[in-house]
Design brief:
With 59 residues, the chain is an all-alpha fold. It has one domain. The protein is elongated and about 55 Å long. Helices cover 66% and strands 0% of the residues. The longest helix has 26 residues.
Length: 59
């Protein structure tokens, strides 16, 4: 087994990590828009429930 010390990360791993970060960012924007526009009264449900933070994290 070779040690990868001093080598750069493979291009495929970089591509994967970039797409994961983009997907996470888009999901965060989507959830913020859902709460901001109060779709299906989600903002009220999240802010007035003791497990509202858990619901936002799961969204």
């Amino acid at each position: 087994m070779e040690c990868n010390a001093g080598r750069s990360m493979p291009k495929l791993i970089k591509l994967y990590m970039r797409h994961v970060a983009i997907g996470f960012g888009l999901a965060a924007v989507f959830v913020a828009m859902l709460l901001g526009f109060n779709v299906a009264n989600l903002k009220h449900l999240v802010t007035h429930s003791n497990v509202g933070l858990l619901a936002v994290v799961l969204l």
